[in-house]
Amino acid sequence: MNHTVKTTLVPSFFVSLAAALLISVAGAHATVRTEGGLSESKVGVSETYRLNVPTEKEIATTQIRLVVPAGVAVSRFQVTPGFTRTVTRNADGLVTEVVWKGRVAPMEYARFFFQARNPAQGAN
After folding, report:
1. 71's torsion region: left (phi>0), alpha (psi -120 to 50) or beta?
2. SS3 for 120?
3. Of 14, 37, 48, 112, which one's alpha carbon is 20 to 30 angstroms from that of 78?
């Protein structure tokens, strides 16, 4: 059995990156942090982020979906060997969703790196 992991970035006063809780078949829990491991970032700055996707049960993860909120401008991705990436853009050309397909075996994790500019204003 395989499953999909869904992650959503949620902005806060700073840009909160810890809101990456997943509800899926295996109950996986993914996190989005800055490259340096911080869970928050300042408004209006560009950062490199890492999406960490562990498997928590004896089921492989074969698809990871990242939903990008309005105001966050994803600019590029690091190549992740063994995975293909599909990017969805809105009418303005901004990335709204990213789907990686590949395989994260049980007892393993994968990291996906991307660069983005945070919104000029944080959410309240």
Report:
1. left
2. coil
3. 14
- Summarize pLDDT for 29-85 with one digit per residue, the tens: 788 888 888 888 888 899 999 999 998 788 888 999 888 888 899 999 999 999 999
Structure tokens at 113: 């790196």
- Look at the block and give the residue holding tokens 């869970």: 39
Q: Rounded to the nearest 5°, which phi and psi values hold at 98?
A: -130, 135
pTM: 0.77
Q: Where are the beta strands (DSSP E) in the chain?
A: 2-8, 15-16, 31-34, 40-41, 46-54, 60-67, 73-77, 84-89, 95-104, 109-117
**Per-residue exposure over 20-46, b if at least 16 CB sit within 10 Å of its own CB, e if not:** bebebebebbbbbbbeeeeeebebeee
Going by the DSSP 8-state scheme, the letter that residue 25 receives in this structure is T
Cβ(86)–Cβ(4) below 8 Å = no
